[in-house]
Design a protein that fits this description.
The structure is a single chain. The protein is α/β, with parallel strands linked by helices. It has a single domain, classed as ATP synthase, F1 complex, gamma subunit (Pyruvate Kinase, Chain: A, domain 1, 3-Layer(aba) Sandwich). It has 5 helices and 5 strands, in the order αβαβαβαββα. The chain has a 5-stranded mixed sheet with strand order 3-2-1-4-5, with helices on both faces. The longest helix is centred in the C-terminal third of the chain and has 76 residues.
Length: about 290
């Protein structure tokens, strides 16, 4: 049975841990609100861009572009968007579990985030490029990642480019997903169903007509690279919102568990202390009776 001194030391240690996790929870909550707002604010623009892109494609006629060229998939690239830090629950492990299902013999990997890069290096996968991005992702960071992937696709080194990330659903739910970036003909809109939540973000392709100068083909050719850049940028925003949300929830759970552990240890301490006092009283009473 542990002594009262051991239990006091453990209570003090758990209290110190609880203070740290509480502070991390507050920091994560502050960053989470900003990251969530950034991710949610970018979604209507993605919906609008997809609608415009659909209109341009419809009027471009027999338009061809290297970024929409479909090929037989012999080699593909996977962009892995992970976090730089841990202490975010199962956020990274769920994502990397999906990444581990890919065939390393036919896949080259592009890592954005330290955790993903460490996993790819540890599992000896073909890491073609490694990028970093800030807590508040910049468009220039997304453009660098997108351009690197576009170069691989345009040079013919890969026949398809996918992106794996953690999609933000809400504060308690983050879902790892893999989506196709290139060829563009197979890409899907990010959370296009969100346009039903905001009437201003709806764009009916049947009621809006566009006039393109100099031509729809020229506009589409210039729009496609920007479309890819912004898709990657939105993915970075979603990943950051997921990371801060998961970390806030994980630190809250850790703080609650620490508080419960402190209660249990305090109860054990009081029981041992009470038993010790009772034993001492019995010894004193027995000694007094033997002398009397």
């Amino acid at each position: 049975m542990p002594s009262t001194r051991d239990i006091r030391r453990r209570i003090k240690s758990v209290k110190n841990t609880a203070q740290i996790t509480k502070a991390m929870q507050m920091v994560a909550a502050s960053k989470m609100r900003k990251a969530q707002q950034a991710a949610l604010s970018g979604r209507p623009y993605v919906v609008l861009m997809n609608s415009v892109l659909g209109q341009v494609s419809a009027q471009a006629g027999d338009f061809s572009h290297p970024l929409i060229e479909k090929r037989t998939i012999k080699k593909r690239a996977l962009i892995v968007i992970s976090s730089d830090k841990g202490l975010a629950g199962a956020l990274n492990s769920n994502l990397l579990r999906e990444v581990a299902k890919t065939d390393p013999n036919t896949t080259v990997y592009i890592a954005a985030g330290r955790k993903g890069a460490q996993f790819l290096s540890r599992t000896k996968r073909n890491l073609a490029g490694e990028f970093t991005y800030k807590d508040a992702p910049q468009f220039s960071e997304a453009r660098a990642i997108s351009k690197f992937a576009q170069d691989l696709f345009l040079k013919g080194d890969v026949d398809q480019v996918d992106i794996a990330f953690t999609n933000y659903i809400n504060t308690l739910t983050q879902k790892p997903e893999t989506r196709t970036l290139m060829p563009i003909g197979e890409i899907k809109a990010l959370d296009a169903d969100l346009q039903s939540d905001n009437a201003d973000s709806k764009l009916s392709t049947s009621s809006v007509e566009y006039l393109f100068e100099p031509s729809a083909s020229s506009v589409l050719g210039a729009l496609l690279p920007h479309y890819l850049n912004y898709q990657v940028y939105q993915v970075l925003l979603e990943a950051k919102a997921s990371e801060h949300s998961a970390r806030m929830v994980a630190m809250k759970n850790a703080t609650d568990n620490a508080k419960q552990l402190i209660k249990d240890l305090t109860l054990d301490y009081n029981k041992i202390r009470q038993a010790s006092i009772t034993k001492e009283l019995l010894e004193i009473t027995s000694a007094a009776m033997s002398m009397g």
